[in-house]
Design brief:
alpha+beta; 13 strands; 5-stranded antiparallel sheet; 5-stranded mixed sheet
Amino acid sequence: MTVFALVDANNFYASCEKLFDPRLAGKPVVVLSNNDGCVVARSAEAKALGVPMGAPWHQLRELARREGIVACSSNYALYADMSNRVVEVLGQFCPALEVYSIDESFLDLKGFAVQDPERLAGYGRQIRRRIRDWLGLHVCVGIAPTKTLAKLANHCAKKGVAGADGVCDFGTMTDGELTSLFQRIPVDEVWGVGRKIALRLEDMGIKTVRELRDADPSTIRGRISVVLERTVRELRGVSCLPLDELAPAKQQIMSSRSFGQYVYELSELSEAVASYMGKAAEKLRAQNSVAGAVQVHIRTNPFKPNEPQYQRTVTVPLPSPTSDTRELTGRALRLLDDMYKPGFAYQKAGVMLCELQSKSVVQGRLFSNPAAAEQSEAVMRAMDSINAKWGRGTLRSSAEGMVKGWQMRRGNLSPAYTTSWEDVPCVRAI
């Protein structure tokens, strides 16, 4: 019998911001997207005020002034580091875990269930206390025989509709209690059921979790998809989704941003493209892959239809797969030279590395230079090592420039409390 637990941090981005700034305690906090554009995370207080996800910040300024809403720029370095710390704590409770997202992890509790299934909820509460006491973050825990049910149990714990103390264990509920509970939950709360699928299910007369669970799987497969048929079986307690302890290597790597201000000159566009390529190549080497093709795209602002519009995307194969930042950047900049047209206000640029493969299975070429390949790998290894020790960007391509006036706006960026010595909070005892 399988038993999964889903541990999900509450209001993760906003909670990280509040964690190191006591002035934010009890205040409504929202975290904004790149260039401080839209709301991507909200504290419980902001949710209570009705601040919607995805709302443009400029439309909320009056509400923010009236209600004292604090807006923070996205600080992904802080969020990623806190996420890693949560995973470290979870690893002390269970060796088999899957990091599903930056704020969610699945645990395989099968072995614990065999020993004492009645104490799983207590184990979940112990996890909550440890993360709260050690990291200052609050999480909820959902426990069930399948991953889909564990997600649903976590939803019930978070909304307070089942379980207690932020932990919900479906294994302790009777069939009748589960049926009654599922009848009260809308079907779009099921993992993988989005708005469009929910509308299609509604046309079939399926509006609740119970109705989806009791639907005929073959009918669901025929009218919706095989993926949703699997969801139906998971809702019935049949585990179809195993724990993925190792994240699969990415098939494509993209790095793209909107600029903080319009860019007109090729030199600034080149700096941006080189900077994005540096980040993409670093991720490529981190998963021990090489790229067989490079894509570059640039565009003006499509939401300014009265201004001259231009956009272009070009992909070219590489003579031989590589992960060398210098080679990838050079190829991308040559592409940009051909794509660029003066007289336009560029708002966004990006790069994508395609045709990825493991560097251990790259086919040799008759006229390749093994010595040059070894030297390239040594240089990249040294660069990654220096940047890992002294911070990203310590050693980078000169093509990335120094001033970077095109960088995205982050006017309310909090310090990197946990990843920069200069930003570590100081306490003076008198």
